[in-house]
Amino acid sequence: MDGKLETLRQSLAAKAPYRAGVVDVDPKNLILFYGKDRKAGRIDFNDVTSEELEHLASTCDPATFGVKNEDVFDESYRKAGKLDSDFFASRLDLDATKLLDMALDDLMEGDGDPRARVEAEIYKLNVYGEGSFFKPHVDTPRGENMFGSLVIVFKTPHEGGSLIVRDHGQEWTFDSAGAVATHEEPCVGYIAFYSDVEHEVTPVTKGYRVTLTYNLYSTEKPLSIDHPHLTSDAEKIKVNLQALLDDPSFLPEGGYLGFGLNRYYPVPRFDVNRDFNTIIHNLKGNDAALVAACKDLPIKAHFRAALRTDVQLGVYVVSPMFDLIDIPYHYYVEGPLTYYLREYFGGLVVNPRRRLKNSNKDRSNGQDLPDESSYPDDYDDEDPRPDIEVFWVNRLQEHSNQLQSPVLCYGNEPSWEYLYAYICLIASIGPYGARDAKWDGGKVQSQ
Ligand SMILES: O=C(O)CCC(=O)C(=O)O
Ligand SMILES: [Fe+2]
Asked: Which atom of ligand 1 is least distant from the CA of 199?
């Protein structure tokens, strides 16, 4: 059973969250117009002088960024020039370059033409002179369907200004300056990444780095999850999950499986009755593959937010959108948060950590989210009994107790409308031999 579980876990692991490269561009498309008054400037990136780049840089405003809902100017965090989209027009034709087709093939899961499901909206022009940079941040979500960001780097003489992307403890560096410098033909560098991924721009050490940023939205046509044509990743997950379900020693009486999703999803901040199941249309990468696999198996799965309300006591899974950050202070002083989550927000206690009676000693060996499902007789009566026991197939992320991780507070735009929620998938399975059982999640409403 352990071997099968490990194989399944491996197939669920997050894939690289970005795609970068260089594409040939028709030289006619490398023209940029810009200006904030009646007299517009024009730059031809096929043959650009440093005086022209200096003029473009001097037309820019100092770039600000968002810390929570405040627009902040702080050159120790972000030093760059920017132009809002009203003040420039690029002749670059994204579709003609085919770069989105290449990038999205990897980033989107599901059948059909990924390009047809994505809209790219021009966002800003940035100019990084010598000593400019942007420290680690996560792009601010501007809608539930925003799933990615795209940065285009023009071929100008410059050094430094690499994009570093960090995800699930891994780090990747894209030296866009080097990549465009060594490409003979007229070209641009590009990097597309999921917008919930942490990234930074290292200091430019020479010349001017000019970029265009785009927001990537998924359009009306989501992946056809109801009749999924399983991609090879989804097929792998399905086969591995099936093997586990076919094992008589795995949850012989049936129960709940929990899957921590790999990515964060934007949810409207103020909609407390949010049904998380709408994220199904915007799933990214292996999260989409997992859901497609579940749809193809006798598994009833539902999205929930997981909040670790008290490090000692375990996890609450709440149904509607719930903004932990905005919980009034008196909730904490008048009673345990768990009570409110349970009474008012449809929260369920999941696998509280075990403590010995009359002792604060933690029996779970420091494991935050224990997999075992037995409750011993010496269970501390003051700890809440679980509403449901969940077998976590893969562990929830470290920061699952916060709907926003610290780095998520640094965005590229102040916004309080959407926030990235950490969502998990809770699935019910029947006993061995009859896995096709009905969802029976206690207070969890089936959708
Ligand atoms: O200009 C770049 O390379 C990236 C800029 C960025 O990360 C942003 O504007 O959010
Ligand atoms: Fe960014």
From this structure: 7
Residues with CB under 5 A from ligand 2 (ion): 139, 412
What stretch(es) of the chain map to CATH 2.60.120?
Answer: 18-218
Distance CA 347, CA 341 (A): 5
Q: pLDDT for 301-317, tens place per residue?
A: 888 777 665 544 455 66
Sign of torsion over alpha carbons 244, 250, 253, 258: negative
pLDDT, tens only, 23-43: 999 999 999 999 999 999 999
Q: What confidence tens digit (pLDDT) does each residue in 46-98 have?
A: 999 999 999 999 999 999 988 877 888 999 999 999 999 999 999 999 999 99
CATH number, span 18-218: 2.60.120
149 Cα nearest atom in ligand 1: 10
Q: 227: Cβ–Cβ under 8 A, 6 or more apart, which residues?
A: none
Of all helices (H) and strands (E), which one includes residue 256? strand 255-260
Ligand 1, from 65, 163, 176: best to mutate by most atoms within 8 Å of Cβ? 163
The DSSP bridge partners found for residue 119 are 217
- Nearest atom of ligand 1 to the alpha carbon of 82: 9
> What's the CA gap between 56 and 125, in Å, rounded?
10
Residues with CB under 6 A from ligand 1: 124, 126, 134, 139, 151, 163, 199, 201, 211, 213, 412
Over the stretch 212-229, which tens digit does the pLDDT of each residue have? 999 999 886 555 555 556
For residue 134, give the ligand nearest its CA: 1
Say yes or no: ipTM exceeds 0.85.
yes
